[in-house]
Records
---
Amino acid sequence: MKKLLLLLTAMLTLSSLALAADVYKIDGAHSSANFAVKHMGISTVRGRFTDVSGAILFDEAAPEKSSVTAVIRSNSVTTDNATRDKHLNTPDFFDTAQYPELRFQSTSVRKVGGDQYVAMGNLTIRDVTKQVELPFTLAQGKGAKGEPRLGAEGSLTINRFDYHVSYDPTGLGVGKEVKIDVSVEGTK
């Protein structure tokens, strides 16, 4: 009986913690994942993924209980150049047939001051998952119909070779470092 009481108490405690956080569904029409990489060391090629989804669990009173899951369809990549986009879908880059998703799953969130936060989490590209740190700003507001909305914008830089995106192994034609800018809006 004592074990049952402890189990029920633990379940109620976890339920109350979950209820303290608000769940926001990422609105793909108002969210983006953009990237920039040097070409030949002289210009920057920019691109974006047009299919972004996921969820944000936000606890304003206890940000450390917050989390985010973001999923990007890899074949939604576009650089506004059909030939390059076709190449990006091949095994030279994203291999979208074998790896249809890029994913970020936070492992922790901390507030660093004002509207500034940092999410630690696992970034998966192709067959590699690595822990990254994503600093971001957070904004809250209301949509056109009065529904609560949450926005987050952040940037990080990765080495594409770490994720087996190793076309042009010299890094001279296509740079090794890729800057990623993420802007998501969620609806409660």
---
Amino acid sequence: MIKQIEAKVVNRLRQVTSAIKQAGANQVSIISSTAERQAAIEFAKAAAMRPRIVGEALREISRDVRVSQALFEVLEVQNLIAGGARITLIPPGREMLADLLSGAARPEPEPKAGKG
């Protein structure tokens, strides 16, 4: 009879332990889903604010023509670099098209005299 009582107590302890574990898992799940929902709401708010913030920054930048030109030159260079394009820099004051047409863009190197 004592063994039967012990078996019932052990069985009941297992059930209670399982119920406690399940209740804890449920609480964790509720907390996690609430946190995920709140995070999603905050990310959505931030995403909605971004165009306004960027627009205000661009409006401020456009007030100074030199700053705006510099910004867009930098952005253009960044896009060229990101695209893997080759860039050839031309010194100022050079008539590149005329040099290319005349073949004078790169003079041929003179052959070196042999050792003799």
---
Amino acid sequence: MTRLFINFLAASAGGGLTYMRNVIPHFAARTDVTVTVALSPRLEEEFRAYPNVEIIALEAATTRRIWYEQSQLPHLIRKSGADVLISAGNFALRKSPVPQILLSRNSLYTSSDFYRDLMRRGEYRFWLDTKLKALFARRSIHWADVTVAPSEAFATELRWWTGMPVRTIHHGFDHQAFCSDSSPLASEVEEKLRSAEGSLKLLFVSHYNYYRNFETLIRALPLLRNRLYGHTLKLLLTCKLAPGENPGAYQTVEAAKLVRDLEVDDMVIELGAIPYRQLHQIYRRSNVYVTPAYTETFAHPLVESMSSGLPIVASDLPVHREICGDAALYFPRFSSEELANRIVEIVSSPDITAKLSANGLARAEVFSWKRHVDELVSLAGSLVF
């Protein structure tokens, strides 16, 4: 029996929460491991009912989380009797009392595009904060016994960045679990979706941040309005472009102003944050999935959209090609013109749409959360025995 300690204190939004919600049930279902999980108190209720999973709820503000982990977690790990530590938040313990697997999944630290974007926006403090965290993330890869990346594209980047070996274990997907919840959407969301009925609906699943490159997508909207004459087009966003409506320090002012300046207010539908268990309903009611992100490590919505049968238009990143293969059309990441061209190709050709959809359904089956957890448990075992 292998005892694991998993540090999920960094999981607060987006991919971190998606990851935690998918892997904990699979750890809990195993009979060859027991798991102690450190997480935020606000998430305790959601996970405490799982068998073989001990929850340690710790209140650690973002500003002092790194210090708290380095100073307090070693004692808790020893107390739990863990054989292996899995650090799931990009940062490793400098002196782990047991062998340590680091899950590294933040490409912002290695993205020159992100640093340029911050400087362009005048986000100098944010730039400095990211640089400092990047130094710590880089050192973490040296401290860990094994570092794991969620895609080969990102693993390659980390190897170049650190000169250290990095292993790839793809993140997974479980279609049945993803689509199991049939509870109705909030009335406000349902009303907005009904207002888009009869329109060609583009979907982009993300809370607002800079690296998802919302502005390139917004600039494509007036081009699409001109080229798709006879079609009414709506862009569905799972966020709101307003202050205080998104996690993190990202400012929505520029994106909101761009929507107004380009006079595409009528084309953008801000659904707001959708509970993960209900996201499948949004995919089902959309026509095309689009992502203009300029950096990624895996991008869960791509697999979710493929499993939902949606054709995909994605920025031409190595990780997007690795995940989607021939289930997407690609465009240069900052070209609104080419983004619009790819969408027009799909709308104009039922054959392309059908091919992308079929390819995506097949491609989505490659990814498995059970397989992901199996590989992590096997890796952990190799560090103990």
